[in-house]
Amino acid sequence: MLTKSGHISEVLDASIRDGGPRGIMERFVLVGILCAHVMVALRPTISEALKMLEGDIDIPRLPDRPLPLSHESFRSSLLSSRSTSTTTRLR
Hints:
There is one protein chain. By secondary structure, the chain is mainly α. It has a domain at about 10-65. About 50% of the residues lie in helices and about 0% in strands. It contains 4 helices and no strands.
């Protein structure tokens, strides 16, 4: 992701990239990404978003996207928990 690698300006459309204060435009991009995070619990409130946009509070580090449930790590942990629960029920 461009923002995590420090290339926020590349997210901006070329027609506006040099047309305004870079720091403010980058701030708006980061707050927008936070507000649209796939996990609702990690999104800022409207009040927090406004404070971030106005520069009253710092913008937190962008949280990682969660892994999809089809990811290998979920399948292996699911198999592990099934074998543990079967063993527990047999006792």
